[in-house]
Structure formats: C-alpha cells, structure tokens
Amino acid sequence: MNRTEFVVATAIILFVAFSLGWFANWLIHRFTRVSQSDVDQLEQMSQELHEAEETRDQAITYLQQREAELTNQLAQTEAELSAAMEGLRDARYEAEEMRAYMERMNAN
Q1: Does residue 52 sit in the same domain as residue 3?
Q2: Model's pTM, two decimal places?
Q3: Alpha-carbon distances, residue 1 vs 9, 13, 107 (angstroms)
Q4: How many separate domains does the chain show?
Q5: Based on the domain organization, do 51 and 74 belong to the same domain?
C-alpha cells in the first residue's frame, strides 16, 4: 500500500466515521426533541403550580391570623370565666354569711 492509497483509505474511514456520528446525532435529536405543545403544557402547569402555591400561602396566613384571634378570644373568655367564678364564690360566701346571721337572729 503506497502513500496515496493510505491517504485515500484514511479519508474514507474518517468520512464514514463523521457520517455515522452525524447520523447518530440527528437520530438522538429527532427522538429527544420536545414539541411546542409539550412546552406550552409544561408552562401552563408551572403557572398553575405557582397560583396553587400562592393560594396555599394565603390560606396559611389566614389560618394563622384566625388562630391568633381565636386564641385571644379564648384567653379573654377564660379571664371572664375566672372573674365570674370569683364573683360567684364571693356571692356564695356572702349568702352563707347571711344565712348564718339569719339563723343566729332567729335563734335569739
């Protein structure tokens, strides 16, 4: 094999390798190509996800505010109950004192 035959054989081998590489690249891109409808659908899904996250955040904020209001209301109600129980205890004590006083007066 002389020099010219070697150069031609090498050129043919390199051309065939280049052609196979190009064809493989074309084939890969052909099968992995994403259609515009898929991109639009993904964009719509991402927008819906973003809106759902905003709605969730708003719901969490509302629930936290509502919980704070109810906790405050519960604390106020417990304070009022405590005050009412204290007043009832005092009224019972006074009523008991009045009964004892009346019994002493009736006994005399």
Answers
A1: no
A2: 0.53
A3: 10, 16, 147
A4: 2
A5: yes
pLDDT in tens, 59-105: 999 999 999 999 999 999 999 999 999 999 999 999 999 999 999 98
Tell me which residue range forms the domain holding 1: 1-33
Taking CA atoms, 23 is separated from 26, 28, 31, 63, in Å, by 5, 9, 12, 59
Both structure tokens of 108: 């005399």
Mean pLDDT computed over every residue of the chain: 93
Q: What is the 3-state secondary structure (H, E, C) of 38-62?
A: HHHHHHHHHHHHHHHHHHHHHHHHH
Please say if the pLDDT value at position 1 is more than 80: no
Largest Cα–Cα distance in the chain? 150
